[in-house]
From TrEMBL:
CDD domains: WHTH_GntR. It comes from Flavivirga rizhaonensis. This is GntR family transcriptional regulator. GO terms for molecular function: DNA binding; DNA-binding transcription factor activity. It holds the Pfam family GntR. SUPFAM superfamilies: Periplasmic binding protein-like I, Winged helix' DNA-binding domain.
Length: 338
């Protein structure tokens, strides 16, 4: 590795560069000149200390920087190796989401576009399954420069996330308690849902019954259920919570509130077959907006976080790394279904 040490020593004369930048630039330069190839082993940290005279922590920082870009990797404590010769990569990002629902697709597309091609983004889905979540974390641990994670809201997951250095983790979508040095850009469900329901009170009272579909042991936010129960109790509304929708059970003068879209499509189909008019014979309210809800049946009223805005905020965090703790508010999008 004499050629590498010589390059580092040459870069020591470049005053604007820090020692960390000298190391990174030297390795990148030798990859681009093809003197370092994929699979080549880099000098150990101890060897680097002895040859170039930099502090151990400086060399570790340089290697971790290159690991974060996916350019080098460490293998079972046996050393550091060239993993990728694409030196244009700025950062290798692990994006962990619940599932590829339409609103999370909006998040991904905006996030991907905002970061650009120099960021490598690998996407993983845990489907609110703790075993799957643990498996994903074990597979991606130490392999990425940044982890953007929509967590399962349990204390166990909070403990797992603390194993990721705070400067490498951004929590998105669902909020989870973490120490103050961790950043997040998340939603809040209970207060925001309650506030939007209050705005809809005159429309809600047009209907004889108000039904929320809420599955236990699902990824449904419990804050929505709490907000619903508080709202109907305070306003003396005839309402109930159903776990599932039964085919052809749609009835007139009822307002239906959906968290996921599966039952929404079933009720709309059954309403069409019975010639019910949405917004008159029955009311429809849904959580999480998307382009389809904007168009069908004259538009479906939604209570939704702006996932594109959340994605822009998350992308900017990755680019500038300024500590942030932000709640993206839910908004009422009033359409013809009420």
């Amino acid at each position: 590795m004499k050629f590498l040490f010589e390059k580092i020593n040459d870069l020591k004369k470049t005053k604007p560069l820090t020692k960390h930048e000298q190391l990174v630039n030297a390795i990148i330069s030798k990859i681009e000149s093809k003197e370092l190839k994929k699979g080549d082993r880099l000098p150990s940290i101890n060897k680097m200390v002895a040859e170039v005279g930099f502090a151990r922590k400086t060399i570790v920082k340089a290697y971790e920087d290159l690991k974060g870009r996916g350019i080098i990797e460490s293998k079972n404590f046996k050393g550091y190796y060239i993993a990728d010769v694409n030196t244009n990569t700025k950062l290798r990002v692990a994006l962990v989401l619940f599932a590829f629902h339409s609103f999370q697709e909006d998040f991904y597309n905006t996030f991907r576009k905002e970061l650009g091609k120099k960021y490598i983004i690998n996407v993983f889905f845990h489907h609110n399954n703790i075993d799957v979540f643990k498996d994903i974390l074990s597979r991606i641990s130490g392999r990425y420069g940044m982890y953007v994670i929509a967590p399962i809201q349990t204390p166990e997951v909070g403990l797992l996330l603390k194993n990721i250095p705070s400067e490498k983790l951004l929590v998105i979508d669902r909020h989870i308690p973490l120490p103050s040095d961790y950043s997040y850009i998340t939603q809040e469900f209970e207060d925001s849902t309650y506030d939007q329901l209050k705005k809809l009170l005159p429309e809600i009272k047009k209907y004889k019954k108000f039904i929320l579909f809420f599955k236990d042991n699902s990824d449904y936010p419990v804050g929505i259920l709490n907000a619903f129960n508080k709202f109907i109790e305070e306003n003396n509304i005839d309402a109930k919570v159903e776990k599932e929708y039964k085919k052809d059970s749609v009835t007139k003068n009822t307002l239906y509130f959906f968290i996921s879209d599966g039952y929404l499509w079933e009720i709309l189909r059954d309403s069409k077959s019975k010639s019910y008019t949405i917004g008159e014979d029955i009311g429809v309210l849904a959580h999480n907006d998307n382009a389809i809800k904007e168009i069908i049946f004259g538009g479906i009223t939604t209570i939704s976080t702006d996932f594109k805005k959340m994605a822009l905020e998350a992308a900017n965090y990755l680019k500038f790394r300024e500590h942030t703790r932000k709640i993206v508010p839910s908004e009422l999008i009033h359409r013809n279904s009420l």
